Amino acid sequence: MNKRNNHWAILIVLLQTFIVTILNHYVYVERNFFALEELLPYVDVIVVVLTILIILSIRKHEEDTKKYTEISLLKEHLKNVEELLTLLKSQKHEHTRHIQTLQSMLYLNEVSAAKHYLEELTEEYWYLQEIIQVGHPALTVLLNTKQKVAESKGIDFAFSVKCDLSTIHVNSWELSSILGNLVDNALEAVLQLKGMKRVAVEVKKENGFFNFYVINSGAMLSKKDVAKIFEAGYTTKQSEARGYGLHLVKKLVSKYDGQVRVILKEKTTFIVSIPVRGEGNVQKALVSSSTCN
Asked: For 108-166, where are the alpha helices, taking DSSP H only?
């Protein structure tokens, strides 16, 4: 963001306050209203000009903030793409290494050793699954990357997109940020579990809304947490750096006239509802509380 623009706005406000203060002091001390009448038109012009400058500074600040937010979200999206590409390269390298090992064994006529190697590889090797396409490039990258991250941490992660997302009117990087923050929150929630760790994502088009369900099997949130979880800086983790992911989700969803809800039943479910353009309303979203098993 442009710090210089912020400084100018503060300076203009201070100057305007200074002029008004001097004017009040003049009226109180001099009590020369005839001279004041001659002075007032010039003061009015100065105040109006300063007010216009303040408005322009505020608008510029809003534009800078919007650009900064978009750049940050785009960087996060590119980071997800980079992580997936790095993972793919790593898996490709592993595939190549195993193929070369088997080729060498067969070249040396070590057939039994090659069979044994294949048996161990089948049982223990974490093979690369095909990239699952979900019909939205940004979410395809995000969900496949999060799946690999979850698997590396021993978390059972599943996702299913049951609608066409090509018509959703949310910027790709903002949609990635919304879903990415919810998935990260869900992964953190189950990470400390000793039993089965499960996170699921489901996307549906229901009653004029694109509904995104993010479900985790972690510890239940308290009513106090649910009431404050979307506030800036509030976190259930012992860290001052946390507490802004869900706030950002709420802010971005509200930008598109959507809604975020939390359902505490057998599992914790976050539901994001984004209205389809020209369809639905928020009241319908409240009725639509799809099964989250």
From this structure: 111-124, 137-152
Q: Which amino acid is at 16?
A: Q
Residue 18 CA to residue 116 CA, distance in Å, equals 86
Verdict on whether the full-model pTM lies above 0.85: no
Residue 72 has pLDDT above 90, yes or no: no
Residue 203, pLDDT > 90, answer: yes
Q: Kindly list the domain boundaries of the chain, sorted by start residue.
A: 3-72, 129-287
Of the chain, the percentage scoring pLDDT greater than 70 comes to 68
Lowest-confidence segment of 29-43, 103-117, 213-227 by average pLDDT: 29-43
**In the CATH hierarchy, which top-level class contains the domain 129-287?**
alpha beta
Plot region of 233 (φ>0 → left; ψ -120 to 50 → alpha; else → beta)? left
**Closest by alpha carbon to 103, among 90, 123, 88, 118?**
118
Q: Is the Cβ–Cβ distance between 133 and 174 less than 8 Å?
A: no
Q: Which long-range contacts (CB under 8 A, 24 or more apart) does 164-169 make?
A: 164/135, 164/205, 165/134, 165/135, 165/136, 165/139, 165/203, 165/210, 166/135, 166/136, 167/276, 167/277, 168/136, 168/210, 168/274, 168/276, 169/256, 169/277
Burial bucket for residue 229 (CB in 10 Å: 0-12, 13-18, 19+)? buried
Alpha-carbon 29 to chain mean position: 57
Measured in whole angstroms, how far is the alpha carbon of residue 270 from the centre of its chain? 13
Q: How many CB atoms lie within 10 A of CB 251?
A: 17
Shortest CA distance to 191 belongs to which of 160, 157, 141? 157
